[in-house]
Amino acid sequence: MPDKLLTFANRREWRAWLRANHARETEAWLVHFKKGFPAETLSYEEAVEEALCYGWIDGLLRRLDERRYVLRYSPRKPNSIWAESNKRRVERLIREGRMAAAGLAMVRAAKASGEWQAVARREQVDHPPVELLRALRAAGALAAFRRLTPSQRKQHIYAVMSAKTEATRGKRVRAIVQMLVHAKKDTGSGRDSL
Q1: In what order do the strands lie in the sheet with 68-75?
Q2: 105 with 11, same domain?
Q3: Which residues span the domain enclosing 88?
Q4: Do 74 and 146 reside in the same domain of the chain?
Q5: Are 38 and 6 in contact (CB under 8 A)?
Q6: Does 54 fall in a domain?
Q7: Pairwise CA distance, residues 106 & 94, whole Å
Q8: pLDDT by 10s per residue, the chain, length 194
Q9: pTM of the predicted model, to two decimals?
Q10: Is residue 194 part of a domain?
């Protein structure tokens, strides 16, 4: 458990803390009350909105006691993927004029790097990239790939598609093929059908 826990009565206090500390602190552990336990403190939704305004995001959650939990807030990493729910929050906060310069800078950077659309791209991974298919066929592992669950296939396809460089893309293709070839040997499954 972190040494320093923060409690704020309302979003105004949390926003003031973020305004003063967002550029110099690496984390803040906020105390939240569980549903059904009324308290004079800001809600999860209010806390997340204010964090987004300053380029921060919620993360690790820990139970404090039967009434409370603590949630770690920290500066968003430049290459982190934006959840659709946070994108909707940010778009609304921008319309309302509540975003701070630090939060707007994170949004601009995410749009410039493509991370703003990464979740949408992740949903479009129904077809394996050509280089992955070629490598799977060459290694005799295509049938093993097809036997994976849909979510496992998507995970592997996304790993290849999300690589930022060709070298990383190739490395990920080789790792996937190697894993499937090894699994095929362990299970004794037959040759691929092309």
Answers
A1: 5-6, 28-33, 68-75, 56-63
A2: yes
A3: 5-113
A4: no
A5: no
A6: yes
A7: 13
A8: 678 999 999 999 999 999 999 999 999 999 998 887 777 788 899 999 999 999 999 988 899 998 889 999 999 988 787 888 899 999 999 999 999 999 999 999 998 887 887 765 555 566 788 899 999 999 999 999 989 888 888 889 888 887 878 899 899 999 999 999 987 665 554 444 33
A9: 0.64
A10: no
Coil, helix or strand at residue 189: coil
Q: Tell me, yes or no, whether 73 and 169 share the same domain.
A: no
| Residue whose tokens read 């040494």 | 3
Give bridge partners of residue 68 from the DSSP assignment: 33
Cα–Cα distances in Å, from 162 out to 117, 135, 159, 170? 11, 18, 5, 12
In the 8-state DSSP scheme, what is residue 190?
-
- The pLDDT value recorded for residue 26 is 96
Which residue has 């921008």 as its token pair? 94
Q: What share of the chain is helix, strand, coil (3-state, %, to 5)?
A: 55, 10, 35
Decide which of 57, 80, 113 is a domain's last residue. Answer: 113
Residue 88 in any domain: the answer is yes
Query: Among 156, 114, 112, which residue's Cα sits nearest to residue 136?
Result: 156
Whether residue 179 lies inside any domain: the answer is yes
Looking at the 3D structure of the chain, how many domains does it have? 2
Last residue of a domain, one of 113, 146, 176: 113
Residue 177 confidence (pLDDT):
95
Instruction: Please report how many Cα atoms fall inside a 13 Å half-sphere around the Cα of residue 80, on the Cβ side.
Output: 17
As given in the structure block, the two tokens for residue 30 are: 């906020």
Chain-centroid distance of CA 78 in Å reads 11
Task: For residues 130 and 98, state if they share a domain.
Answer: no
